[in-house]
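User: Teach me something about this protein's shape.
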Amino acid sequence: MNITSRFVLLGIASLAAAVSLPAGAQVYVGSPGAKLLDSVLGGPRWAPVSTLDVAGVTLGMTPDEARAALRKSGFAPNAKDPQQDGWSAIVSQRAAERIGGNVDRSKVPMFTKVKGTQGETVEVWYAATREGPRASSIKYRMPTVRMERAAFLKGVADKYGNPTFQEGARGLWCTKPEKVCASYASQQLPTLVIESSHAFHEVDLTTGQRYRDEQKALTAAAVEASAPKDAKASF
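Assistant: First, the predicted structure itself:
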């Protein structure tokens, strides 16, 4: 069953759900709504999101790996990417705010942006992690004036299979055990989102909020280790 047909089926199932299912039926943890859609659409729809790619780029790639993947997919990255503070620079700057001292000024790539011959663009954004910059968001955008919606949706279905959740021309591929896989929710785990709007067809692959929170916690712990709040009162 192709993704266009699944959008139609979802509309029918959603209408039934709106009438007979509780408000939380879109929560995908064995809820009645999830079970109904599974029975109609043929089984669980969790996706191995961490292994999916957009234009050859997967989450967690280094800038060099991402740029090589983009070149292999037919894109031509610029010679240099915009820069951001690296992990050690972030930690040292925040530690210096507490105890002073020298500040690390090291930089790492912030994002890689490429444009294709059909007007499409790909943006790969990097998180400055302890291990170095890693791809945390990959977004593909194609103008609708260059591709019919049906062709885009077919390409999505051929590459990624069936989504976990659909709403109109928007589909989400969620990682088990994401508690709420729906367009109104902030996804905690790696997620692939596709959307066909009036102006653009888009594919967006992201690490999720849990990853961002973990990186913040690791940074805070490193700052605390470098400049602990252990001063003693001297008044």
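Now, about its shape. The CA atoms of residues 159 and 212 lie 27 Å apart. The longest strand covers residues 132-143. If you'd like, I can walk through any region in more detail.
User: That's plenty for now, thanks!
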